[in-house]
Specification:
Layout (H helix, E strand, L loop, with lengths): L1 H45 L4 H12 L4 E4 L6 H11 L4 E5 L6 H5 E6 L4 E6 L6 E5 L6 H13 L1 E4 L2 E4 L5 E6 L12 H4 L4 E3 L6 H9 L3 H6 L7 H13 L4 H14 L11 H17 L7 H12 L13 H11 L4
Parallel strand pairs: 1-8, 1-9, 2-5, 5-8
Antiparallel strand pairs: 3-4, 6-7
């Protein structure tokens, strides 16, 4: 009898501990969702009328990738990058890419200091948590490659010594349209290093009126409070990895990847690395949507931005790669 009562007490204690642990997880999830809503709301006060692009940008950061923004000058690319860094409490650096920019201008150099009687390394702008590489396609291919290598390896080698880049390390590169003068197109292998490519586009009439009559965007960005810190961002990035992708969902992703390889839509299909990028981006999208599992809607929402820059359309349909991806999505059955 005593043993039975004792076991009952132990069982009750285990149930209590499990319930407390579950409640703790739920509270943490609720806190994360509230914080993410605050982040999106704050960014939408800076870049008005572009909620989808802002969510894509945040999803890219949460997924641990890098972002390419391709657009004409003056639509808010630099403002968005600076606002994102301020909101997440991250160190920000901006480099204006030009034809004479050298790799050492990014990574830094060692300078002899007479007082120390030694060469001292002076870090370049690459050593920042958020790096805005402005007009990346105006730099020479050699400098482009130096940046993209750092993006992949999260480290640089300067004068024979390997130096780790900060954590997190998030590159937002802007790119001018290819028909503008003085541009060097990024090769496909380098485009593949970007998790997403987005375009902000012109604002609608209401958003543009707010810009014309409101405060200077630089003043707005400078006044932004930091809502997160690097440690909290790292925790959110780990949470993204724990978002569940069920077997039928992964089957759907593989069906989409297979469709890109069929020859019907694109000249060359997606690589396995691109497939991994799709799943990571979809998990981040799901977390921003308040769920701990990936739904087909998440995949469809991020697929054009995640794979459009990796694909070349087939035929004379008159569609760009993003439009072709959307047409393919309509043709591939849901799980």
């Amino acid at each position: 009898m005593g043993a039975t009562v004792g076991m009952s007490k132990v069982s009750g204690l285990i149930h209590l501990i499990a319930s407390a642990s579950k409640n703790s997880v739920n509270v943490h999830a609720m806190n994360s969702q509230q914080k993410l809503r605050e982040i999106l709301d704050q960014l939408n006060t800076v870049i008005v009328g572009k909620p989808t692009q802002i969510q894509d940008c945040v999803a890219c950061l949460l997924a641990g990738g890098h972002l390419l923004i391709e657009d004409v000058p003056g639509v808010g690319k630099t403002t968005l990058a600076h606002a994102l860094a301020k909101t997440f409490g991250l160190q920000f650096s901006r480099v204006q890419f030009t034809s004479d920019l050298m790799p050492s201008d990014l990574s830094g150099v060692s300078i002899y200091e007479r007082g120390k009687e030694a060469f001292v390394f002076h870090a370049g702008p690459l050593f920042a948590q958020v790096l805005l590489a402005d007009e990346i396609n105006r730099a020479s291919p050699k400098t482009q490659s130096a940046l993209l290598e750092a993006m992949e390896e999260k480290q640089v080698t300067v004068e024979g010594e390997t130096r780790a880049l900060p954590e997190p390390f998030f590159v937002i590169a802007t790119q001018n349209p290819h028909d503008q003068l003085g541009t060097y197109a990024l090769p496909e292998s380098q485009l593949d290093r970007f998790l997403m490519r987005i375009s902000l586009g012109y604002p609608d009439r209401g958003a543009e009126r707010e810009l014309l009559t409101g405060r200077d965007r630089r003043d707005v960005v400078n006044a932004l409070p930091g809502l997160l810190n690097p440690a909290e961002l790292a925790q959110l990035q780990q949470t993204v990895l724990q978002v569940h992708a069920a077997a039928p969902l992964l089957n759907y992703v593989q069906d989409l990847i297979a469709a890109t390889r069929s020859g019907q839509w694109f000249l060359q299909g997606l690589s396995p690395r691109a497939g991994i990028a799709v799943v990571r981006a979809a998990k981040a999208q799901a977390l921003l949507g308040g769920r701990d599992y990936v739904a087909p809607d998440d995949v469809q929402a991020i697929l054009p931005q995640t794979v459009g820059h990796r694909l070349i359309p087939v035929g004379d349909a008159g569609r760009g790669s993003v439009e072709q991806v959307r047409a393919m999505i309509e043709a591939v059955p849901l799980p």
